[in-house]
Specification:
Elements lengths: L12 E7 L3 H12 L4 E4 L15 E2 L3 H4 L6 H4 L2 H25 L3 E11 L6 H14 L9 E3 L1 H4 L3 H4 L7 E12 L2 H14 L3 E3 L4 E7 L2 E6 L10 E10 L5 H5 L10 E12 L7 E6 L6 E6 L4 E5 L3 E2 L11 H14 L12 E10 L12 E4 L8 E5 L6 H13 L26 E3 L2 E5 H10 L5 H8 L13 H12 L3 H18 L7
Parallel strand pairs: 1-2, 1-10, 2-7, 4-12, 10-18
Antiparallel strand pairs: 3-6, 4-6, 5-6, 8-9, 9-10, 11-14, 11-15, 11-16, 12-13, 13-14, 17-18, 19-20
Helix pairs in contact: 1-8, 1-11, 12-14, 14-15
Length: 519
């Protein structure tokens, strides 16, 4: 189903306009459509092409909120911090349970180990207590499978045998964690379900004008893919700003005095292939400075990625990538964690980075992580709301929270419908050839179905958000032209456009998923 023409939207009035089709914006649009609201969901790029697609991809249980960098006593001695940590932990555990129950096909189980060292910041009893709190705060299904391995038991597992400082290792707290496979696909699923329920869903539709008119808002939108279409103006009774790191830019379109809401920190990741026997096991620990968590996460095809940096970002928010400093820092942290392996720059297969849309708060030098829904009435925007610091993990409750804000403001103009959380399925086509020799799960028929029904704007959208080929070991470099040829008749690409898409895809990989020492 192609996108609607802009001219078809001119002059229309929607109950709610959702600006930003990241994972929280798509969730909100799905929730609102199910409640009977008329919904417009737009994004200046592709669905979830910002921070949602560039996260660490964990459906984490909330341990990081209970075991942050520094001493756990920091939480105990600060009732406000403790209350926030418990709330965020509860949200994470509930989100983990709900997502796995309804969308297990979009997840992967991994075994995470938290090494405990003699004289370290976290003691054995503290980890035991933390997992008791997790079990108390959240649903019991799926289980955490928590066990504390003795040093001897840990050394039987190649991953933990390679950990540093074995002489001071007191054990490994091992537990079950889940991973999104993959987060932007989840967003596309929700956007398509919102469309099924009547929402107007458009990617590559930048908001170029925003004004308060009467009891609602006038929005001017353009088409970034078809410059022959003239911008149009339409109306919305209410507004949700889920533009992530672009939230302040959207709010400032009104021309009024709007308070700052976003503070960004950059999270970079590097992809590695570890020795045989390390597959399916991961590590969560503190960085070498003892200030922030780091993760070594198993990934597709026996790969791992090392995550994650935590640096204040003030660069171009439209061009975010892991630079050499990020990659070198992650390599140092990896080699601190597992010094016997001695990995170097040449061992980095590729990288990625994103910027967290955290809440601006002068009291937090690196932004506040607590999810907040901001009522923008005080900024001269009644009936408008923005969400900051919304984790990928809790996108469903985030969408519900945003929909609740609209429900308290206006009533829906239509009847409620049943939303569908189940993953969107490609047609079963066993006779279809595979796109990639090394990853036969992706079929050429999948590309064609996505091209016909899911509004990709280019080959990058298809390979990453629609079929996931970009997240394999080769990232589909070798199949870029074949993929473009496969969908050319559907998307109207001639030979010149096929060549342009294939070249553009490989250039994108070289730039946004760069190896160290490259452009």
């Amino acid at each position: 189903m192609p996108r609607s023409l802009l001219s078809e939207l001119s002059g229309r009035t929607f109950d709610a306009a959702v600006i930003g089709a990241g994972i929280n914006g798509c969730s909100a649009a799905q929730q609102l459509a199910a409640r009977g609201y008329t919904v417009l969901l737009i994004d200046k790029g592709d669905f979830a092409s910002g921070s949602s697609s560039r996260s660490t991809r964990l459906i984490h249980c909330g341990l990081r909120y209970l075991a942050p960098g520094g001493s756990m006593w920091d939480l105990v001695l600060s009732p406000k911090k403790l209350a926030t940590a418990l709330r965020m932990t509860r949200q994470a555990m509930v989100a983990r349970s709900e997502f796995v129950a309804t969308s297990e096909a979009r997840t992967r189980i991994i075994k995470f180990g938290f090494p405990i060292y003699r004289g370290g910041q976290h003691k054995k009893w503290q980890l035991d207590l933390a997992f008791k709190v997790l079990k108390t705060l959240g649903p019991q299904n799926p289980p955490l499978d928590y066990t504390r391995l003795s040093p001897a038991e840990a050394r039987r597992i190649p991953m933990y045998q390679a950990l540093r400082d074995q002489g001071n290792l007191e054990g490994v707290a091992m537990f079950r964690e889940y991973q999104f496979d993959w987060a932007e696909r989840v967003a596309v699923d929700m956007a398509m379900d919102a469309r099924r329920m009547g929402a107007v869903v458009r990617n590559y539709t930048p908001l170029t004008g925003l004004a308060r008119v009467g009891e609602g808002y006038a929005l001017t939108i353009a088409d970034a893919l078809d410059r022959t279409q003239s911008p149009v103006t339409l109306s919305a009774k209410t507004l949700l700003n889920t533009a992530g790191i672009w939230i302040d830019k959207v709010n400032n379109l009104t021309g009024g005095k709007v308070n700052r809401r976003i503070f960004g920190t950059k999270g970079a990741h590097i992809v590695l292939r570890l020795p045989e026997g390390f597959q399916d096991y991961g590590v969560i620990s503190l960085n070498s400075a003892g200030t922030e968590p780091v993760y070594l996460v198993p990934w597709r095809q026996g790969l791992h990625y090392m995550a994650v940096t935590e640096t204040v970002y003030d660069g171009d928010i439209d061009d975010i990538k892991a630079d050499d400093a990020d990659i070198d820092w992650l390599l140092r942290e990896f080699n601190h964690l597992m010094p016997g392996l001695g990995y170097k720059r040449d061992d980095v297969l590729w990288s990625w980075a994103g910027v967290r849309p955290l809440t601006y708060d002068p009291a937090f030098p690196k932004g506040a992580r607590s999810r907040l829904t901001h009522d923008l009435s005080a900024d001269g925007m009644p009936g408008a709301f923005a969400m900051t610091a919304g984790p990928v993990t809790t996108h469903r409750s985030g969408g519900i929270e945003l929909a609740d804000a609209i429900s308290r403001t206006i009533k829906p103009s239509g009847a409620p419908q049943a939303l569908d959380y189940s993953p969107r399925k490609f047609p079963d086509s066993p006779a279809s050839p595979a796109l990639l020799n090394h990853y036969p799960e992706i079929k050429l028929s999948d590309l064609r179905f996505a091209a016909e029904t899911e509004q990709p704007g280019n080959l990058i959208d298809l390979m990453f958000a629609r079929v996931g080929a970009g997240w394999t070991e080769t990232q589909g470099r070798e199949a870029a032209r074949k993929a473009a040829e496969t969908v050319a008749d559907i998307l109207g690409w001639d030979e010149a456009r096929i060549e342009k898409e294939a070249d553009g895809y490989t250039a994108y990989l070289a730039h946004r998923h760069r190896r160290p020492g490259t452009s």
